[in-house]
UniProtKB/TrEMBL annotation, chain A:
UniProt entry keywords in alphabetical sequence: Oxidoreductase, Pyruvate
Matching Pfam families: POR (PF01558)
Protein name as catalogued: Pyruvate ferredoxin oxidoreductase
Gene3D superfamilies: Pyruvate-ferredoxin oxidoreductase, PFOR, domain III (3.40.920.10)
GO molecular function: oxidoreductase activity, acting on the aldehyde or oxo group of donors
PANTHER family tied to this protein: INDOLEPYRUVATE OXIDOREDUCTASE SUBUNIT IORB
Pyruvate/ketoisovalerate oxidoreductase catalytic domain residues: 13-109
Listed InterPro entries: IorB_Oxidoreductase (IPR052198), Pyrv/ketoisovalerate_OxRed_cat (IPR019752), Pyrv_flavodox_OxRed_cen (IPR002869)
Automatic annotation (TrEMBL), chain B:
Record key words, sorted: 4Fe-4S, Electron transport, Iron, Iron-sulfur, Metal-binding, Oxidoreductase, Transport
Keyword Transport appears in the UniProt entry: yes
Any one GO biological process: small molecule metabolic process
Superkingdom, taxonomy of origin: Bacteria
InterPro entries, alphabetized: HACL1-like, IorA, Pyrv_Fd/Flavodoxin_OxRdtase_N, THDP-binding, TPP_enzyme_TPP-bd, Transketo_C/PFOR_II
Positions of the Pyruvate flavodoxin/ferredoxin oxidoreductase pyrimidine binding domain: 17-172
Keyword Acetylation: no
EC number: 1.2.7.8
Cofactor notes: Binds 2 [4Fe-4S] clusters. In this family the first cluster has a non-standard and varying [4Fe-4S] binding motif CX(2)CX(2)CX(4-5)CP.
GO MF annotation: an example: metal ion binding
Pfam families cross-referenced by the UniProt entry: POR_N, TPP_enzyme_C
Official protein name in the record: Indolepyruvate oxidoreductase subunit IorA
Naturally occurring in which organism (per UniProt): Thiocapsa imhoffii
Domain named Thiamine pyrophosphate enzyme TPP-binding: residues: 360-507
Amino acid sequence: METLKNIVIAGLGGQGVLTASDMLAEAAFRAGFDVKKSELHGMSQRGGSVSSDVRYGTHVLSPMVPAGEADVLLVLDSTQVEINRAVLKPGGVLIAPELIAPGTLKNKKSLNVALLGAVSSVLDIPRAHWMAAIYANLAEKLHKINDQAFELGREAASRGSLAQPQ
Amino acid sequence: MTGERQLLSGDDAVALAALHAGVQLGTGYPGTPSTEILETFDQLGGRAQWSPNEKVALEVGLGVAFAGARTLVTMKHVGLNVAADPLYTAAYTDVEGGLVVVSADDPGMASSQNEQDNRHYSRAAVIPTLEPIDSQQAYDFTRLAFEISERWKIPVMLRLTTRVCHSKTVVVPRAPVAATAVPSFERKIPERVMIPAFAKPAHHRLRAKLAEIAAWNEAEGPVREDRGDSELGILTTGISAVHAREAAPSASHFTFGMTYPLPLTRIRDFAASVQRVLVVEEGDPVLVTDLRAEGIPVEGKAEMYRFGELDVARVRRIIAGETSPEPVPPKGKPPELCQGCAHREVFQALKDLDCIVAGDIGCYTLGVLPPFSAMDTCVCMGASIGVGLGLRHALPEHEARRVVSVIGDSTFVHSGLTGLAEMVYNPPPSGHLVLILDNGTTAMTGLQEHPGTGRSLDHSPTNRMDFEAIARAMGVQNVHLVETTDKTRSLKDLISDLLAKPETALVITRQPCVLAAPKIRLYDKAAAEGTPQQTCAAAGV
């Protein structure tokens, strides 16, 4: 179980939380890991709180990240940070939307991919798998703008000296 | 793609397995968390259709099975209540083609009005039941369910739960089988006509089939035993099995895939091999009750864990016998009616007029939340009309006149038509007013078509039910259509006028759901041009 990584993605309905978790799960899957991704949807898509769990490693059992065991918490809306903070393990990494400086994203809808760029800097998934996973989940006309968003998030993370998950 | 690993949700895995099992028709009614099964089956090239409700879906499925073809019928847990009438007697009949009924339960009520445990239906209706723990088993058990159904000519239930339906896990599919025999009609009256003379022997046959299936489950049913230490043995099924293996990695685990009828001898042997034997199951103590009735001394969970989903932390607590209050997770932001949603105007009018609102199941149930707080009852699909009529019959006149029933378009087709018949047949002295909030889609479950939209499951054109004409033909005295973009007369004034009349009335407020509108334009355009239907994903919407 040493290789198990736990990531929780949270935000509000319509922000792309579930798309982001699909991309992350697919990137880990393409990298050859066992993967489980869990979400609840239905009423939450009407603007309410949404979260999704992704776990990957050599062998994953439960699809849900137990409270206090997340290596990374990625939050798309700043109002959703506190209500999700308890999922992080001690030393876990919080990636909040403030990481992306206002006005730097060409399309606000790419915030989820930008923050995945930041996540990519603390996870052991090769870059090629990230890009393939992102493209697979988006229409082709959106590929270029999301390339830029991903890169923006990766750079912001390197400048912001994100802690490595322990 | 056979043999290649794929990352699939449980719903998608069931759809792929149905395709690989040669299913010739999939039927169902949308309901979270089951909805995606038929949508995916359609996208993979299978033939799928939405029925007006689950009862009709199962009846169509049964006809397909009598004709010798394989059929998959999908619904959420409460949908099986609607389909319960055909289910109980379908179990008595001999099906030719495999008939698999998916019941997608929602422990924790992520998107449901109750958390009923449909394992009770397995026992009550005598339906063999398989419960997968992940997407691989969802795939494998769907295919197994068809084999069992055809071997014993019996409907089989595949019971899923929200976390199996909506979790993605790795699946390796197997080689598909070709569709079974070409459907044809063979007269088999005693096996299919359930009058008492034929149903009496059929009941005996059903119990005999069940005994044979139990023997098969003992001998070669899908079970898995992970031997750990002999201090603690955990008996478990479904999603609980993975939580339990993570919570107690050193214990012995016995997981069984067919949860009705049970592999009792194997369970008895396992129970005897450990010092403490604990059943870890989500929902009601169904297995605990069954096993204790068979004299197997199992330990169950504390009553507090009957409520909500299980997870690793809760299973750790169950094992430890912990019954102190659980940590309460912080409350998230509740959902709300979308900005620009036409339902907002309706609920504002009902609030302003201080109406007593008998509500129903769908997006518009969100009218109960602030800022509107304009819904007073919500029970099940279609209940708004009957409950509204009951309130009208019982309340004193000044209060009865305030009662309005509010129902969505898809819900009206599902279960509202008989309510309308009741209104015409037994009108309360004060009359009654029903509002159909017609947004042109089954919005709550993710924008599915229904008989009122004029489009099939794959969004191609078909016949459209005309609500106004139906209401007039049924004898409703006042029928009004209000396009909510039309501001010549306010909706509030219309409702107010109708509440003052001791007559029956139906008002249809019609404006497409804001989320569905762009897609509906694409479907209409494709229909007008006669081009093949584009899927939403391909169209980039």
